[in-house]
Structures are given as C-alpha cells and as structure tokens.
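Encode chain A's predicted structure.
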Amino acid sequence: MRLAGRRNVVLALGVTQTLAWASSYYLPAMLAVPMARELGINAPVVFAAFSVALLISALVGPYAGLAIDRWGGRPVLMATNVLFAGGLACLAGAQGPISLFLAWALLGIGMGSGLYEAAFATLVRLYRQDSRSAISGITLLAGFASTVGWPLSTYLELHWGWRGTCLTWAALHLGVALPLNALLPNPSHPADRAPAPDETTPKTTADAVSTAGATTLWPSILLAIVFAITWFTSTAMAAHLPGVLMASGATLAAAVAAGALVGPAQVGARALEFTLLRRMHPLLAARLASLGHPLGVATLLVLGAPAASAFVILHGGGNGILTIAKGTLPLALFGPQGYGLRQGILMVPARIAQAAAPWLFGLCLEKWGVNALLITAALGLISFAALGFLRLARAVPSSSA
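Encoded structure for chain A:
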C-alpha cells in the first residue's frame, strides 16, 4: 500500500520531519545539561559533539541527495529512521565523551540524509517542477518541531531521565516515522541522469552540456552563500537570542517572552508563503525575506529593549520564508534534474557555517554586546545582494540542467 494524493504525502513528510528535527537538531537544548551532569563533563562538550554531527551531515548530504535522485526518497528516508533510532539508542547508552561523540556522529549521518534537504529532494522526484507548494507544506508542518520537541523532551526527561528520553525518540522513529516513510509512493518517472556525450553524440550537444554546467556555476555559488548566511544567522540566534535581547536592555522575563515569538513568526511567514505569496516567484520572496533580519536589527539597535518583539518577529518571519527558499530556489533556477545531488552540495557550506555559528557569534556577543548583531545584519545584506545578482539567471531546461 502507498499513500495516494499529494496532501497525504505532505502530511506524512510533515510528521516525519517534525520527529526528525525534534529528536536531533532541537535535542541538545533540553538535554545537554543533564547529559553533561551525569557523564561528568561540561555542557559545551555536548554541544561540541553536536557540532561534529553537523559537520558530518554536511559531508553526507550530497551522497544522500544523489541516492534520492537515483532511487527516490522512500528507501533513503526509511534508512535514516533506522539511523536516527540507532544513534539515539547509542546516545542513551553513552558512558563518557568517546561514546557521546560516536553517538552524535551516527546521528549526524541521519541528519545529513533525513532532514529538510532529503525531504525536498523526495518531493522533487515525485512532483518535479510542480513541487513548490508541497515543499512549503512540509516546512509549515515541521515548523512546529521545536514547539513539540522541547516540551516533550522536557517532560520525558523529568519523568524518565535523558536516557529514557532518547529511547522514546528512537521508538517514535521506528514506530511512527518509519512506517509513514514506508508508505511514500515511488517516483512515476525515470531517475534523472545527466546526458553524457560519447563518440556518437554530436559536438553541438556536448557543447550544450558544457555550457549548461558553466551557466549554473555562478548561480550555484551565490545560492551557497545565501544558504550559508541563512543557516549561520538562524543557528546563532537560536543559541543566543535571550542573551542578545538582554544585552539590548531587556529583562530575562521579557527576553524569554519575546524569544517565544520566533516559532509563531516562522510558521506565520510560511503560511503566508503557502497562500498569498505562492504566485510570487521564489526569488522575489527570498529577496524580501533576506531583509527581515537586517530590518529587525536596525529596529532593535535604534529603539532598544522595547523593540525586542519586533526584532524577533522580523527575524523569525524572514527565516521562515528562507527555509522554504532553500528548497524552491534551486528548483526554480536549475530545474528538477539532479536536484538531490545539487541540493546536498549547496548545503555543505551551510552546515559548516551552522556548526561554527554558536561559538563564533558567542565570542562576538561577549566582546561587543548587542552590537554583535551588526555582523549578522551585514551578512543579511550580503545575502540580499547575492540574490539580486541572480536576477539574470534563468532556469536551465530539464534536458540539459
């Protein structure tokens, strides 16, 4: 039996992505302290292991994308559920730093082959050029991963400890996510294969393939820059948002209250993209979204603590739409052929930037206080400029992309 209808596929992937994000990316925020306390290490060591997982995910991403291009997302995503479950079980059994790092390394393989990029590639293999609304749909649903994951992890840790929490997430991967991914339909069209000129291929065709590769290089570099900036800023804010707001003069209570608006702002922006902005070209939507964080920074630096909520909403809204753009922009610019591999390659710099963001931005925040936001604001403007340079790029025909 396979899922029938796009809506059912989107719902299934939305659920599995929520589980994947909640049990990996959002796990250290709730469990790092109890893990460190029981293992006799400092909490930063746990986050260092998490950073290693992010670096490993960067290396795995292109291979996972290539596998989805060839065989579709169903077998790859099913395998990642087993990887997630195994990594979480190993994490639950960790007895010291070595086993902790090994467990997060295994989780890093799952993250590199089972988070948004893999889900986007799965949808593109199924729906080709007509995947934008489906991509928006799963990001809209999975936008609640922290809203669901943080309270659930906290509740489980309180009642069963952090080891029991990890085992519970592992069981959810095997009992919920794995069966849902097993129901995904197989692609109805043949796997994308780049045309390879041989002795019988006319010279004009070979030249066309070479030209297509050359014309996609510069847009690919620009997109990689945009995605790296997006992930750096997003991860830096996720790690240091309360500290940033308190550095602007907000109280702890006010900073926590304002910080809680990130999730709703992201989901609200994704809902907007899913409805009113769906007729807008994704490049234009991405340009507008890239200005969200810089505008929020300007508002906070000018008005101070009273503008904390406005900063969070602008940052969260822009980040929410840019998350969708990571899936829709490569599709709009290059077409569906080879999408998974290209997506994996484009995200390598982003994952590296993501791994370094908490530490680097933390140093800047410690040295310059709230003015450290000038760095992320400048990066946001660079991202806007990079997207502006893409105005002359055209989608590459699927026969030669």
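The mean pLDDT is 84.
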